Amino acid sequence: MNRRAPATISPSEITPEAVFHDRRRILAALGATAIAVAGPSASSQAPAASTGRPPRSPPRYTRNTRWSSTEPPTAYEHVTSYNNFYEFGLDKPDPKANAQRFRTDPWSVEIGGEAELSGRFALEDLLAPHALEERIYRLRCVEAWSMVVPWLGLPLGDLLRRFKPTSKAKYVEFTTLLDPKQMPGQRARVLDWPYVEGLRIDEAMHPLALLVVGVYGQWLPNQNGAPLRLIVPWKYGFKSIKSIVRIRFTEKQPQTSWSRSAPDEYGFYANVNPAVHHPRWSQAKERRIGTGLLATRSDTLPFNGYAAEVASLYRGMDLRRHF
Amino acid sequence: MRVEQRYRLIYKPLVWLGALLPLALLLGRGFGLAGGSLGADPAEEILRTCGKTALNLLLLTLAVTPLRRLLQAPQLLRLRRLLGLFAFFYAVLHLLAYAVLELQFDWPVLGEDIVKRPYITLGFVAVLLLAALAATSTQRAMRRLGRRWQRLHWAIYPAALLGVWHFWWQVKADIRQPALYAAILTALLGWRLWWKRRAALTSTSGSSTTPGRT
Question: What is the distance between the terminal CA atoms of chain A, rounded to a whole angstrom?
Protein backbone atom coordinates (compact mmCIF):
# COMPACT_ATOMS: atom_id res chain seq x y z
CA MET A 1 0.00 0.00 0.00
CA ASN A 2 0.93 3.52 -0.52
CA ARG A 3 1.80 5.12 2.76
CA ARG A 4 3.56 8.41 2.63
CA ALA A 5 5.80 10.17 5.01
CA PRO A 6 4.36 13.32 6.52
CA ALA A 7 4.89 16.26 4.25
CA THR A 8 7.39 18.72 5.42
CA ILE A 9 6.33 21.47 3.04
CA SER A 10 2.85 22.81 2.52
CA PRO A 11 1.14 22.40 -0.85
CA SER A 12 1.27 26.10 -1.52
CA GLU A 13 5.04 25.97 -1.48
CA ILE A 14 5.19 23.41 -4.23
CA THR A 15 2.83 25.13 -6.63
CA PRO A 16 4.73 25.23 -9.91
CA GLU A 17 5.52 28.46 -11.62
CA ALA A 18 3.13 27.74 -14.48
CA VAL A 19 0.17 28.32 -12.25
CA PHE A 20 1.44 31.71 -11.31
CA HIS A 21 0.91 32.91 -14.85
CA ASP A 22 -2.47 31.45 -15.50
CA ARG A 23 -5.83 33.06 -15.57
CA ARG A 24 -6.94 31.65 -12.24
CA ARG A 25 -4.19 33.49 -10.46
CA ILE A 26 -5.32 36.75 -11.94
CA LEU A 27 -8.87 36.01 -10.90
CA ALA A 28 -7.48 35.01 -7.55
CA ALA A 29 -5.90 38.36 -7.05
CA LEU A 30 -9.12 40.10 -8.00
CA GLY A 31 -11.14 37.89 -5.71
CA ALA A 32 -8.87 38.45 -2.77
CA THR A 33 -9.15 42.18 -3.26
CA ALA A 34 -12.89 41.98 -3.53
CA ILE A 35 -13.21 40.21 -0.21
CA ALA A 36 -10.72 42.43 1.50
CA VAL A 37 -12.54 45.54 0.31
CA ALA A 38 -16.04 44.31 0.86
CA GLY A 39 -15.50 43.15 4.41
CA PRO A 40 -17.92 41.19 6.53
CA SER A 41 -21.12 43.19 6.39
CA ALA A 42 -21.04 44.47 2.84
CA SER A 43 -20.11 41.10 1.44
CA SER A 44 -23.36 39.62 2.60
CA GLN A 45 -25.14 41.83 0.12
CA ALA A 46 -22.97 40.65 -2.73
CA PRO A 47 -25.07 39.27 -5.54
CA ALA A 48 -25.16 35.49 -5.53
CA ALA A 49 -24.26 35.38 -9.18
CA SER A 50 -24.22 37.41 -12.34
CA THR A 51 -26.31 36.43 -15.31
CA GLY A 52 -25.51 35.81 -18.95
CA ARG A 53 -22.14 34.33 -18.11
CA PRO A 54 -20.45 32.38 -20.92
CA PRO A 55 -20.10 28.63 -20.41
CA ARG A 56 -17.37 27.73 -18.00
CA SER A 57 -13.97 26.98 -19.43
CA PRO A 58 -12.28 23.77 -18.31
CA PRO A 59 -10.54 23.98 -14.95
CA ARG A 60 -6.86 24.93 -14.74
CA TYR A 61 -4.89 23.03 -12.22
CA THR A 62 -1.55 21.53 -11.31
CA ARG A 63 -0.82 18.00 -10.19
CA ASN A 64 0.08 17.63 -6.58
CA THR A 65 2.08 14.42 -6.58
CA ARG A 66 3.27 14.80 -3.04
CA TRP A 67 -0.25 14.22 -1.68
CA SER A 68 -1.29 11.74 -4.34
CA SER A 69 -1.62 7.99 -4.24
CA THR A 70 0.32 6.05 -6.84
CA GLU A 71 -2.38 3.41 -7.10
CA PRO A 72 -4.22 3.23 -10.42
CA PRO A 73 -7.28 5.50 -10.38
CA THR A 74 -10.74 3.96 -10.63
CA ALA A 75 -12.26 4.39 -14.10
CA TYR A 76 -14.07 7.69 -14.73
CA GLU A 77 -17.14 5.66 -15.69
CA HIS A 78 -17.29 4.04 -12.24
CA VAL A 79 -16.42 7.20 -10.33
CA THR A 80 -19.32 8.98 -12.01
CA SER A 81 -21.93 6.20 -12.06
CA TYR A 82 -21.49 4.44 -8.71
CA ASN A 83 -22.52 7.09 -6.24
CA ASN A 84 -24.03 7.42 -2.81
CA PHE A 85 -25.86 10.73 -3.02
CA TYR A 86 -29.20 10.05 -1.36
CA GLU A 87 -30.56 13.44 -2.39
CA PHE A 88 -30.83 11.96 -5.87
CA GLY A 89 -31.92 8.43 -4.99
CA LEU A 90 -30.77 5.49 -2.97
CA ASP A 91 -29.33 3.09 -5.50
CA LYS A 92 -25.83 3.63 -6.80
CA PRO A 93 -26.87 4.50 -10.40
CA ASP A 94 -29.68 6.86 -9.23
CA PRO A 95 -27.64 10.04 -8.76
CA LYS A 96 -26.33 9.91 -12.31
CA ALA A 97 -29.82 9.30 -13.65
CA ASN A 98 -31.57 11.92 -11.51
CA ALA A 99 -29.02 14.73 -11.20
CA GLN A 100 -28.53 15.60 -14.84
CA ARG A 101 -30.79 18.66 -14.72
CA PHE A 102 -29.62 19.83 -11.31
CA ARG A 103 -28.71 23.51 -11.55
CA THR A 104 -25.35 24.33 -10.01
CA ASP A 105 -24.88 27.72 -11.62
CA PRO A 106 -25.46 30.23 -10.09
CA TRP A 107 -24.29 28.83 -6.76
CA SER A 108 -23.51 30.61 -3.56
CA VAL A 109 -22.18 29.55 -0.21
CA GLU A 110 -23.04 31.12 3.11
CA ILE A 111 -20.14 31.25 5.52
CA GLY A 112 -20.58 32.27 9.10
CA GLY A 113 -20.54 31.40 12.75
CA GLU A 114 -17.53 31.92 14.97
CA ALA A 115 -15.43 33.89 12.49
CA GLU A 116 -14.53 37.51 11.95
CA LEU A 117 -15.73 37.49 8.37
CA SER A 118 -19.00 36.10 7.17
CA GLY A 119 -21.56 36.41 4.44
CA ARG A 120 -22.90 34.83 1.35
CA PHE A 121 -20.51 34.45 -1.54
CA ALA A 122 -20.85 33.51 -5.15
CA LEU A 123 -18.91 30.33 -5.71
CA GLU A 124 -16.56 31.87 -8.25
CA ASP A 125 -15.65 34.67 -5.85
CA LEU A 126 -15.06 32.16 -3.12
CA LEU A 127 -12.73 30.09 -5.27
CA ALA A 128 -11.01 32.93 -7.04
CA PRO A 129 -8.00 33.42 -4.73
CA HIS A 130 -7.12 29.73 -4.81
CA ALA A 131 -5.13 27.67 -7.27
CA LEU A 132 -6.66 24.31 -8.03
CA GLU A 133 -4.63 21.18 -7.65
CA GLU A 134 -5.19 17.58 -8.58
CA ARG A 135 -4.75 15.03 -5.86
CA ILE A 136 -5.27 11.31 -6.28
CA TYR A 137 -6.86 10.09 -3.08
CA ARG A 138 -8.15 6.78 -1.89
CA LEU A 139 -11.85 6.85 -1.03
CA ARG A 140 -13.18 4.30 1.45
CA CYS A 141 -16.94 4.01 1.85
CA VAL A 142 -18.42 2.83 5.15
CA GLU A 143 -20.08 0.09 3.05
CA ALA A 144 -16.66 -1.59 2.63
CA TRP A 145 -15.92 -0.61 -0.97
CA SER A 146 -13.24 1.76 -2.14
CA MET A 147 -12.01 3.77 -5.11
CA VAL A 148 -9.00 5.82 -6.09
CA VAL A 149 -10.05 9.21 -7.41
CA PRO A 150 -8.16 12.12 -9.00
CA TRP A 151 -9.94 15.08 -7.43
CA LEU A 152 -9.47 18.75 -8.28
CA GLY A 153 -9.69 21.10 -5.40
CA LEU A 154 -8.06 23.34 -2.89
CA PRO A 155 -7.00 22.77 0.69
CA LEU A 156 -10.05 23.41 2.86
CA GLY A 157 -7.93 25.13 5.50
CA ASP A 158 -6.65 27.71 3.01
CA LEU A 159 -10.20 28.81 2.33
CA LEU A 160 -11.36 28.65 5.95
CA ARG A 161 -8.47 30.78 7.19
CA ARG A 162 -9.59 33.65 4.95
CA PHE A 163 -12.62 34.05 7.21
CA LYS A 164 -10.51 34.38 10.34
CA PRO A 165 -12.17 31.85 12.64
CA THR A 166 -12.15 33.01 16.26
CA SER A 167 -10.92 31.05 19.26
CA LYS A 168 -14.50 29.85 19.74
CA ALA A 169 -14.42 28.05 16.41
CA LYS A 170 -13.89 24.49 17.63
CA TYR A 171 -15.73 22.79 14.79
CA VAL A 172 -16.80 23.41 11.22
CA GLU A 173 -20.29 22.46 10.07
CA PHE A 174 -21.18 21.88 6.43
CA THR A 175 -24.68 21.76 4.95
CA THR A 176 -25.92 20.47 1.60
CA LEU A 177 -28.52 22.30 -0.46
CA LEU A 178 -32.13 21.66 0.56
CA ASP A 179 -34.26 21.69 -2.56
CA PRO A 180 -36.76 18.82 -2.84
CA LYS A 181 -37.91 20.17 -6.20
CA GLN A 182 -34.52 19.49 -7.70
CA MET A 183 -33.44 16.72 -5.35
CA PRO A 184 -36.09 13.99 -5.55
CA GLY A 185 -34.44 11.97 -2.78
CA GLN A 186 -35.29 14.73 -0.30
CA ARG A 187 -39.01 14.07 -0.80
CA ALA A 188 -38.62 10.87 1.22
CA ARG A 189 -37.56 11.16 4.85
CA VAL A 190 -34.75 8.65 4.59
CA LEU A 191 -32.54 11.11 6.44
CA ASP A 192 -33.31 14.35 8.20
CA TRP A 193 -32.70 16.80 5.33
CA PRO A 194 -30.66 18.81 4.63
CA TYR A 195 -27.55 16.67 4.95
CA VAL A 196 -25.16 18.01 7.57
CA GLU A 197 -21.58 17.05 8.20
CA GLY A 198 -18.83 18.38 10.40
CA LEU A 199 -15.16 18.33 11.28
CA ARG A 200 -13.17 19.38 14.27
CA ILE A 201 -11.32 22.59 13.40
CA ASP A 202 -7.90 20.90 13.43
CA GLU A 203 -9.21 18.21 11.08
CA ALA A 204 -10.62 20.87 8.80
CA MET A 205 -7.31 22.74 8.78
CA HIS A 206 -5.30 19.61 7.99
CA PRO A 207 -3.65 19.94 4.58
CA LEU A 208 -5.20 16.66 3.39
CA ALA A 209 -8.75 17.98 3.79
CA LEU A 210 -9.80 19.12 0.34
CA LEU A 211 -12.61 21.28 -0.98
CA VAL A 212 -13.33 19.71 -4.33
CA VAL A 213 -14.72 21.28 -7.49
CA GLY A 214 -13.61 18.77 -10.11
CA VAL A 215 -12.63 15.22 -10.91
CA TYR A 216 -10.53 13.74 -13.70
CA GLY A 217 -9.50 17.18 -14.91
CA GLN A 218 -13.08 18.39 -15.36
CA TRP A 219 -15.61 20.24 -13.24
CA LEU A 220 -17.55 17.90 -10.95
CA PRO A 221 -20.44 16.07 -12.60
CA ASN A 222 -23.66 16.74 -10.71
CA GLN A 223 -23.84 13.21 -9.32
CA ASN A 224 -20.46 13.64 -7.65
CA GLY A 225 -21.59 16.58 -5.56
CA ALA A 226 -21.28 19.56 -7.88
CA PRO A 227 -20.37 22.28 -7.67
CA LEU A 228 -18.55 22.14 -4.33
CA ARG A 229 -17.92 19.19 -2.06
CA LEU A 230 -15.63 18.05 0.66
CA ILE A 231 -13.13 15.22 0.52
CA VAL A 232 -11.64 13.97 3.77
CA PRO A 233 -9.65 10.96 2.59
CA TRP A 234 -8.92 9.41 5.97
CA LYS A 235 -12.61 9.23 6.90
CA TYR A 236 -15.46 7.14 5.56
CA GLY A 237 -17.01 8.62 2.44
CA PHE A 238 -20.18 9.88 4.10
CA LYS A 239 -18.15 12.58 5.86
CA SER A 240 -17.29 14.07 2.48
CA ILE A 241 -20.46 16.10 2.06
CA LYS A 242 -21.68 17.13 -1.38
CA SER A 243 -23.22 20.24 -2.98
CA ILE A 244 -22.31 22.50 -0.05
CA VAL A 245 -24.30 25.70 0.49
CA ARG A 246 -23.30 26.56 4.04
CA ILE A 247 -20.15 26.45 6.12
CA ARG A 248 -20.35 27.48 9.75
CA PHE A 249 -17.70 27.71 12.43
CA THR A 250 -19.21 26.42 15.67
CA GLU A 251 -18.24 26.04 19.27
CA LYS A 252 -20.25 22.85 19.76
CA GLN A 253 -19.83 19.62 17.85
CA PRO A 254 -22.24 19.68 14.89
CA GLN A 255 -25.13 17.21 14.79
CA THR A 256 -24.27 15.27 11.66
CA SER A 257 -26.89 13.50 9.57
CA TRP A 258 -25.79 9.89 9.82
CA SER A 259 -24.90 10.04 13.48
CA ARG A 260 -28.36 11.45 14.15
CA SER A 261 -29.96 8.73 12.04
CA ALA A 262 -28.08 5.83 13.67
CA PRO A 263 -25.81 6.99 16.51
CA ASP A 264 -24.65 3.48 17.36
CA GLU A 265 -23.49 2.88 13.79
CA TYR A 266 -22.08 6.18 12.55
CA GLY A 267 -20.01 8.37 14.78
CA PHE A 268 -18.94 11.98 14.39
CA TYR A 269 -15.33 11.06 13.67
CA ALA A 270 -15.91 8.15 11.27
CA ASN A 271 -12.19 7.67 10.73
CA VAL A 272 -11.46 4.65 8.57
CA ASN A 273 -10.51 1.97 11.07
CA PRO A 274 -10.18 -1.74 10.23
CA ALA A 275 -10.18 -2.60 13.93
CA VAL A 276 -13.55 -1.01 14.72
CA HIS A 277 -16.31 -2.81 12.92
CA HIS A 278 -19.62 -1.39 11.90
CA PRO A 279 -22.13 -3.13 14.20
CA ARG A 280 -23.49 -5.02 11.23
CA TRP A 281 -20.41 -5.73 9.13
CA SER A 282 -16.66 -5.98 9.24
CA GLN A 283 -14.46 -3.06 8.21
CA ALA A 284 -11.29 -5.14 7.97
CA LYS A 285 -11.30 -5.44 4.19
CA GLU A 286 -12.57 -3.55 1.20
CA ARG A 287 -13.62 -4.23 -2.39
CA ARG A 288 -11.86 -1.98 -4.86
CA ILE A 289 -14.47 -0.87 -7.39
CA GLY A 290 -13.68 -1.77 -10.98
CA THR A 291 -11.18 -4.53 -10.26
CA GLY A 292 -13.53 -7.28 -11.36
CA LEU A 293 -15.63 -9.95 -9.81
CA LEU A 294 -12.86 -12.19 -8.58
CA ALA A 295 -10.32 -9.57 -7.54
CA THR A 296 -9.06 -10.16 -4.04
CA ARG A 297 -10.24 -7.92 -1.24
CA SER A 298 -7.56 -5.68 0.09
CA ASP A 299 -6.92 -4.96 3.74
CA THR A 300 -8.37 -1.68 4.93
CA LEU A 301 -5.66 0.50 6.44
CA PRO A 302 -5.95 2.61 9.57
CA PHE A 303 -7.04 6.11 8.55
CA ASN A 304 -7.38 4.73 5.01
CA GLY A 305 -3.60 4.67 4.65
CA TYR A 306 -3.13 8.28 5.81
CA ALA A 307 -2.15 7.39 9.38
CA ALA A 308 1.31 8.93 9.07
CA GLU A 309 -0.29 12.27 8.26
CA VAL A 310 -3.35 12.34 10.51
CA ALA A 311 -2.99 9.87 13.39
CA SER A 312 -1.47 12.60 15.58
CA LEU A 313 -4.78 14.49 15.45
CA TYR A 314 -6.31 11.77 17.58
CA ARG A 315 -3.52 11.17 20.07
CA GLY A 316 -4.90 10.10 23.42
CA MET A 317 -8.39 9.47 22.08
CA ASP A 318 -10.11 6.11 22.43
CA LEU A 319 -10.95 5.44 18.80
CA ARG A 320 -13.26 2.59 19.76
CA ARG A 321 -15.43 5.02 21.65
CA HIS A 322 -14.99 7.92 19.24
CA PHE A 323 -15.65 5.86 16.13
CA MET B 1 -55.53 -32.11 -21.86
CA ARG B 2 -55.97 -33.48 -18.40
CA VAL B 3 -54.99 -31.39 -15.41
CA GLU B 4 -51.97 -33.54 -14.72
CA GLN B 5 -50.73 -33.21 -18.27
CA ARG B 6 -51.27 -29.49 -18.28
CA TYR B 7 -49.08 -29.14 -15.21
CA ARG B 8 -46.41 -31.47 -16.50
CA LEU B 9 -46.21 -29.99 -19.97
CA ILE B 10 -47.08 -26.33 -19.49
CA TYR B 11 -47.23 -24.93 -15.97
CA LYS B 12 -44.20 -26.64 -14.49
CA PRO B 13 -41.95 -25.77 -17.45
CA LEU B 14 -43.19 -22.18 -17.11
CA VAL B 15 -42.19 -22.14 -13.44
CA TRP B 16 -38.76 -23.46 -14.41
CA LEU B 17 -38.38 -20.74 -17.02
CA GLY B 18 -39.61 -17.98 -14.75
CA ALA B 19 -37.50 -19.12 -11.82
CA LEU B 20 -34.34 -19.45 -13.87
CA LEU B 21 -34.84 -16.12 -15.62
CA PRO B 22 -33.18 -14.00 -12.87
CA LEU B 23 -30.13 -16.27 -12.98
CA ALA B 24 -30.04 -16.16 -16.79
CA LEU B 25 -30.24 -12.36 -16.74
CA LEU B 26 -27.46 -12.21 -14.16
CA LEU B 27 -25.25 -14.47 -16.26
CA GLY B 28 -26.09 -12.52 -19.40
CA ARG B 29 -25.08 -9.28 -17.74
CA GLY B 30 -21.99 -10.95 -16.29
CA PHE B 31 -20.83 -11.98 -19.74
CA GLY B 32 -21.73 -8.62 -21.22
CA LEU B 33 -24.49 -9.91 -23.51
CA ALA B 34 -26.67 -7.29 -25.21
CA GLY B 35 -24.53 -4.52 -23.79
CA GLY B 36 -25.36 -5.50 -20.23
CA SER B 37 -23.02 -5.40 -17.27
CA LEU B 38 -23.07 -6.03 -13.57
CA GLY B 39 -21.99 -2.46 -12.93
CA ALA B 40 -19.18 -1.12 -10.83
CA ASP B 41 -19.65 -3.57 -7.98
CA PRO B 42 -20.54 -6.92 -9.56
CA ALA B 43 -20.20 -8.94 -6.35
CA GLU B 44 -22.76 -6.75 -4.61
CA GLU B 45 -25.10 -6.95 -7.60
CA ILE B 46 -25.00 -10.75 -7.66
CA LEU B 47 -25.45 -10.93 -3.90
CA ARG B 48 -28.46 -8.63 -3.94
CA THR B 49 -30.11 -10.21 -6.96
CA CYS B 50 -29.85 -13.75 -5.54
CA GLY B 51 -31.04 -12.67 -2.11
CA LYS B 52 -34.04 -10.80 -3.43
CA THR B 53 -34.98 -13.58 -5.84
CA ALA B 54 -34.85 -16.08 -2.97
CA LEU B 55 -37.22 -13.88 -0.97
CA ASN B 56 -39.53 -13.35 -3.95
CA LEU B 57 -39.79 -17.09 -4.52
CA LEU B 58 -40.26 -17.76 -0.83
CA LEU B 59 -43.20 -15.37 -0.71
CA LEU B 60 -44.57 -16.88 -3.90
CA THR B 61 -44.35 -20.33 -2.31
CA LEU B 62 -46.31 -19.02 0.66
CA ALA B 63 -48.86 -17.51 -1.71
CA VAL B 64 -49.75 -20.89 -3.21
CA THR B 65 -52.13 -21.95 -0.45
CA PRO B 66 -54.11 -18.68 -0.30
CA LEU B 67 -54.28 -18.60 -4.10
CA ARG B 68 -55.58 -22.17 -4.21
CA ARG B 69 -58.47 -21.11 -2.01
CA LEU B 70 -59.14 -17.76 -3.59
CA LEU B 71 -58.96 -19.03 -7.16
CA GLN B 72 -60.53 -22.35 -6.22
CA ALA B 73 -57.65 -24.04 -7.99
CA PRO B 74 -56.44 -26.76 -5.62
CA GLN B 75 -54.18 -28.16 -8.32
CA LEU B 76 -51.83 -25.21 -7.78
CA LEU B 77 -50.38 -27.31 -4.98
CA ARG B 78 -48.43 -29.15 -7.67
CA LEU B 79 -46.25 -26.04 -8.17
CA ARG B 80 -45.49 -25.39 -4.53
CA ARG B 81 -42.58 -27.76 -4.08
CA LEU B 82 -40.91 -26.48 -7.25
CA LEU B 83 -41.21 -22.87 -6.10
CA GLY B 84 -39.91 -23.73 -2.66
CA LEU B 85 -36.92 -25.59 -4.08
CA PHE B 86 -36.07 -22.64 -6.32
CA ALA B 87 -36.29 -20.32 -3.30
CA PHE B 88 -33.77 -22.58 -1.57
CA PHE B 89 -31.63 -22.67 -4.73
CA TYR B 90 -31.33 -18.86 -4.79
CA ALA B 91 -30.77 -18.71 -1.03
CA VAL B 92 -27.82 -21.06 -1.49
CA LEU B 93 -26.50 -18.98 -4.39
CA HIS B 94 -26.84 -15.90 -2.16
CA LEU B 95 -24.87 -17.58 0.63
CA LEU B 96 -22.25 -18.83 -1.84
CA ALA B 97 -21.92 -15.38 -3.38
CA TYR B 98 -21.29 -14.05 0.10
CA ALA B 99 -18.71 -16.69 0.97
CA VAL B 100 -16.95 -16.69 -2.39
CA LEU B 101 -17.28 -13.19 -3.83
CA GLU B 102 -17.48 -11.10 -0.66
CA LEU B 103 -15.31 -13.09 1.72
CA GLN B 104 -13.29 -15.05 -0.85
CA PHE B 105 -13.36 -18.27 1.14
CA ASP B 106 -12.18 -16.55 4.28
CA TRP B 107 -13.82 -19.18 6.47
CA PRO B 108 -12.78 -17.70 9.84
CA VAL B 109 -14.42 -14.40 8.84
CA LEU B 110 -17.53 -16.23 7.63
CA GLY B 111 -17.72 -18.05 10.96
CA GLU B 112 -17.24 -14.81 12.84
CA ASP B 113 -19.92 -13.09 10.74
CA ILE B 114 -22.43 -15.88 11.36
CA VAL B 115 -21.85 -15.75 15.10
CA LYS B 116 -21.28 -12.04 15.68
CA ARG B 117 -23.39 -10.25 13.09
CA PRO B 118 -27.03 -10.80 13.98
CA TYR B 119 -28.41 -10.08 10.52
CA ILE B 120 -26.09 -12.67 9.01
CA THR B 121 -27.04 -15.12 11.77
CA LEU B 122 -30.69 -14.68 10.82
CA GLY B 123 -30.02 -15.24 7.14
CA PHE B 124 -27.88 -18.27 7.85
CA VAL B 125 -30.52 -19.89 10.07
CA ALA B 126 -33.10 -19.25 7.34
CA VAL B 127 -30.93 -21.09 4.80
CA LEU B 128 -30.47 -24.01 7.24
CA LEU B 129 -34.24 -24.27 7.71
CA LEU B 130 -34.79 -24.21 3.96
CA ALA B 131 -32.13 -26.89 3.55
CA ALA B 132 -34.01 -29.16 5.95
CA LEU B 133 -37.19 -28.59 3.96
CA ALA B 134 -35.46 -29.20 0.62
CA ALA B 135 -33.90 -32.39 1.92
CA THR B 136 -37.31 -33.72 2.96
CA SER B 137 -39.18 -32.58 -0.11
CA THR B 138 -39.32 -35.94 -1.87
CA GLN B 139 -42.37 -38.22 -1.95
CA ARG B 140 -40.34 -40.80 -0.08
CA ALA B 141 -39.50 -38.42 2.76
CA MET B 142 -43.15 -37.41 2.93
CA ARG B 143 -44.25 -41.01 3.30
CA ARG B 144 -41.53 -41.84 5.79
CA LEU B 145 -42.15 -38.83 8.01
CA GLY B 146 -45.92 -39.15 7.87
CA ARG B 147 -47.61 -36.61 10.17
CA ARG B 148 -44.25 -35.23 11.27
CA TRP B 149 -43.61 -34.04 7.71
CA GLN B 150 -46.33 -31.41 7.97
CA ARG B 151 -44.99 -30.14 11.27
CA LEU B 152 -41.44 -30.00 9.94
CA HIS B 153 -42.56 -28.05 6.91
CA TRP B 154 -44.15 -25.36 9.04
CA ALA B 155 -40.54 -24.26 9.32
CA ILE B 156 -41.14 -22.29 6.14
CA TYR B 157 -42.88 -19.65 8.29
CA PRO B 158 -39.87 -18.92 10.53
CA ALA B 159 -37.61 -19.20 7.48
CA ALA B 160 -39.60 -16.50 5.66
CA LEU B 161 -39.73 -14.31 8.77
CA LEU B 162 -35.98 -14.60 9.27
CA GLY B 163 -35.36 -13.91 5.57
CA VAL B 164 -37.36 -10.68 5.59
CA TRP B 165 -35.85 -9.67 8.92
CA HIS B 166 -32.37 -10.32 7.48
CA PHE B 167 -33.21 -8.03 4.56
CA TRP B 168 -34.61 -5.34 6.83
CA TRP B 169 -31.62 -5.39 9.17
CA GLN B 170 -28.99 -4.86 6.49
CA VAL B 171 -30.38 -1.71 4.87
CA LYS B 172 -28.69 1.55 5.82
CA ALA B 173 -31.58 3.94 6.01
CA ASP B 174 -34.32 3.30 3.50
CA ILE B 175 -36.59 0.61 4.86
CA ARG B 176 -39.29 0.95 2.20
CA GLN B 177 -38.40 -2.21 0.29
CA PRO B 178 -38.01 -4.55 3.26
CA ALA B 179 -41.18 -3.00 4.70
CA LEU B 180 -43.02 -4.00 1.52
CA TYR B 181 -41.75 -7.56 1.87
CA ALA B 182 -42.79 -7.58 5.51
CA ALA B 183 -46.26 -6.32 4.58
CA ILE B 184 -46.73 -9.06 1.98
CA LEU B 185 -45.50 -11.71 4.41
CA THR B 186 -47.85 -10.38 7.10
CA ALA B 187 -50.76 -10.55 4.65
CA LEU B 188 -49.88 -14.12 3.67
CA LEU B 189 -49.58 -15.28 7.27
CA GLY B 190 -52.58 -13.23 8.40
CA TRP B 191 -54.71 -14.83 5.75
CA ARG B 192 -53.80 -18.23 7.17
CA LEU B 193 -54.88 -17.24 10.69
CA TRP B 194 -58.11 -15.84 9.36
CA TRP B 195 -58.75 -18.98 7.32
CA LYS B 196 -58.04 -21.24 10.29
CA ARG B 197 -60.40 -19.27 12.49
CA ARG B 198 -63.11 -19.38 9.89
CA ALA B 199 -62.64 -23.10 9.38
CA ALA B 200 -62.84 -23.64 13.14
CA LEU B 201 -66.04 -21.58 13.33
CA THR B 202 -67.72 -23.41 10.48
CA SER B 203 -66.79 -26.81 11.86
CA THR B 204 -68.16 -26.01 15.34
CA SER B 205 -71.39 -24.78 13.79
CA GLY B 206 -71.84 -28.28 12.43
CA SER B 207 -71.35 -27.46 8.80
CA SER B 208 -69.66 -30.10 6.68
CA THR B 209 -68.22 -27.56 4.30
CA THR B 210 -64.70 -28.49 3.35
CA PRO B 211 -62.12 -25.71 3.45
CA GLY B 212 -61.78 -26.01 -0.31
CA ARG B 213 -65.27 -24.69 -0.92
CA THR B 214 -66.38 -21.19 -0.27
Answer: 23
